Amino acid sequence: MNITQLYEDIQSFIFGFGPKLLGAIAVWIIGSWIIKLAVKALKKIFERTKLDKSLKPFILSLSGIMMKLLLAISVLGMLGVEMTSFIAILGAAGLAIGMALSGTLQNFAGGVMILVFKPFKVDDLIDTQGHIGVVKEILIFVTILLTPENKTVILPNGAVANGEIINYATEGNIRVDMEFGISYNASIDEAKKILYNVMEEHPLVLDDPKAFFGVVGLGDSSVNLVVRPYSKPRDYWTVYFDVYERGKKALEAGGIEIPFPQLVLHQANS
Question: What is the pTM of this model?
């Protein structure tokens, strides 16, 4: 092949394929920009509707992926790629990728199951896969929790959907279990009255159901009282820590002794 022939081939390629390539690049750039606008517009529409919070990030992520896939197919069609062959190749590649990414597909299926059956939703307090936290987002493949320690936990949806889930927010309230020990010389009724006042004065303790008080056992050094107020799931830890602190201070101010472990020895007269 001489230089003239090579030049003619390059010129033919540039004038024949060049416009298609430039057009495809332009369509990709413009299409990507339009997809971003469409996703933002869809997000704003969701913010104005009463759509479940759990569905919003899932639908946005899925919509973005689908639109980008359609854009890629359109661009390849402009470049002259035969769509029938491409779809066949895509199907075979999809099968191979699916086998390689079976765990990822399981997570996708798990995400769909969570959104369909709704064992929990965004803002619920749940216990799953050994983690307790508030659900922040339910995405296509993962669920994101925020723990009481302010740690972000990312859990695969497949494991979550197929595992045990404890939802503390289903009934709208949660019981906070605590225990106080008082001296054997102290009045049980007076201690209950003081702790009851602590419950009534706390703004995050619910009036209904009423807090429960009772003697749970007789320890070596103390009479053990259980205190069980109710709160909203999001307020659980605040109530837990506050009531312990306020309860101790109130019992001490009311003259109720909170004993520490001790051993009393009695000497028999010989």
Answer: 0.53
pLDDT at 190: 92
CATH 2.30.30.60 location in the chain: 113-167
Give Cβ neighbours of residue 167 (< 8 Å, ≥ 6 apart).
Answer: 119, 120, 124, 125, 126
For 5-15, b/e burial (b = at least 16 CB within 10 A) is eeeeeeeeeee
Q: Which CATH architecture has domain 3-100?
A: Orthogonal Bundle (1.10)
DSSP structure class, residue 261: P
Bridge partner list, 127: 132, 166
Q: What is the pLDDT of residues 132-168, one digit of tens each?
A: 888 988 888 889 999 888 899 999 988 898 889 999 8
Range(s) of the chain covered by CATH 1.10.287.1260: 3-100
Tell me how far apart the alpha carbons of residues 146 and 123 are, in angstroms, rounded to a whole number.
10
Q: CATH topology for 113-167? A: SH3 type barrels. (2.30.30)
User: Where do we find the tokens 């494991």?
Assistant: 159
> What's the rounded Cα separation, in Å, for the pair 32 and 4?
40
- CATH class belonging to 174-253: alpha beta
Q: Coil, helix or strand for 113?
A: helix
Q: What is the pLDDT of residues 88-143, one digit of tens each?
A: 666 666 666 555 555 677 888 888 888 878 888 888 889 998 898 889 888 888 89
Residue 3 scores a pLDDT above 60: yes
